[in-house]
């Protein structure tokens, strides 16, 4: 079986800055894959190139064997994506937005209707189904965007910081939904800054910094004997010593 996601030699430059620098990554089918890295490491840029949202300067991305840039429509059929910071059609209500995502996927209207309501209910948005998304909180917006990514039951889910701004109860619900999805044969790739969460949820992890993969593979192998956070700090560099600075703040 081909990998759920195979990235080869991805490069993206913004002016003089190389955000992603010849990055390779293989995500096996059925994995729950965490992507971690410091701010500005290139996680969002990588996931955007992997899902057809941002054209790479070089390299290739395949989803379950389908080339994202040679056959974008084919790849997008296999993918559910929760992008970071991409504007939603926020003049729709939550229910309209999820329905719209399903109808865009050419799903039958009655299936879209049933799934949209079920998703909003599961994510605690049933009472806000008729509210315009522009009036949602950050966490509610994240959850409705997740519903949009799930409605067509994709083979591979790519989620950029799905737990950011989400309350603990909703976080637990999302974890349960994703766990069930992976147990059912789906593949999840998510980026997160929360090491505990990645350690608890993920079977595999990649540590990215400076647009390159510093370590990747099964969680236990990458983590070694310590915690993921310790390994992360080892790989990425120590914490900054701020003693003797910011005196004016004390
Ligand atoms: N549209 C853009 N134009 C210019 N520079 C960009 C753009 N998008 C990203 N960058 C730069 O590329 C680098 C990688 O950014 P990216 O958003 O991929 O990092 P990240 O790992 O997702 O960071 P964070 O954890 O803070 O979300 C950063 O230096 C960023 O400033």
UniProtKB/TrEMBL annotation:
<dbReference type="InterPro" id="IPR003593">
    <property type="entry name" value="AAA+_ATPase"/>
</dbReference>
<dbReference type="InterPro" id="IPR003439">
    <property type="entry name" value="ABC_transporter-like_ATP-bd"/>
</dbReference>
<dbReference type="GO" id="GO:0046677">
    <property type="term" value="P:response to antibiotic"/>
</dbReference>
<keyword id="KW-0046">Antibiotic resistance</keyword>
<dbReference type="GO" id="GO:0005886">
    <property type="term" value="C:plasma membrane"/>
</dbReference>
<dbReference type="InterPro" id="IPR050763">
    <property type="entry name" value="ABC_transporter_ATP-binding"/>
</dbReference>
<feature type="domain" description="ABC transporter">
    <location>
        <begin position="5"/>
        <end position="235"/>
    </location>
</feature>
<dbReference type="Pfam" id="PF00005">
    <property type="entry name" value="ABC_tran"/>
</dbReference>
<keyword id="KW-0813">Transport</keyword>
<dbReference type="GO" id="GO:0005524">
    <property type="term" value="F:ATP binding"/>
</dbReference>
<keyword id="KW-0547">Nucleotide-binding</keyword>
<protein>
    <submittedName>
        <fullName>ABC-2 type transport system ATP-binding protein</fullName>
    </submittedName>
</protein>
<dbReference type="InterPro" id="IPR027417">
    <property type="entry name" value="P-loop_NTPase"/>
</dbReference>
<dbReference type="GO" id="GO:0016887">
    <property type="term" value="F:ATP hydrolysis activity"/>
</dbReference>
<keyword id="KW-0067">ATP-binding</keyword>
């Amino acid at each position: 079986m081909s990998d759920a996601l195979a990235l080869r030699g991805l490069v993206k430059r913004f002016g003089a800055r190389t955000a992603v620098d010849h990055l390779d990554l293989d995500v096996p089918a059925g994995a729950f894959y965490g992507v971690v890295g410091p701010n500005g490491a290139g996680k969002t840029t990588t996931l955007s190139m992997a899902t057809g949202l941002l054209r790479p300067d070089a390299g290739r991305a395949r989803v379950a064997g389908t080339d994202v840039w040679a056959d974008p429509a084919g790849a997008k059929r296999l993918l559910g994506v929760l992008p970071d910071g991409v504007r939603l059609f926020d003049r729709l209500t939550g229910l309209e937005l999820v329905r719209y995502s399903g109808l865009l996927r050419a799903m039958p209207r009655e299936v879209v209707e049933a799934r949209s309501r079920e998703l909003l209910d599961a994510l605690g948005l049933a009472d806000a189904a008729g509210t315009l998304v522009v009036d949602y909180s950050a966490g509610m917006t994240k959850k409705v965007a997740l519903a949009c990514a799930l409605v067509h039951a994709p083979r591979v889910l790519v989620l950029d910081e799905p737990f950011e701004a989400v309350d603990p109860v909703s976080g637990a619900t999302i974890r349960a939904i994703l766990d069930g999805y992976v147990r059912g044969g789906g593949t999840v790739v998510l980026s997160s800054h929360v090491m505990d969460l990645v350690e608890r949820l993920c079977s595999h992890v990649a540590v990215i910094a400076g647009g390159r993969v510093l370590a990747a593979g099964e969680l236990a192998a990458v983590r070694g004997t310590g915690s993921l956070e310790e390994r992360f700090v080892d790989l990425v560099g120590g914490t900054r010593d701020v003693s003797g600075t910011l005196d004016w703040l004390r």
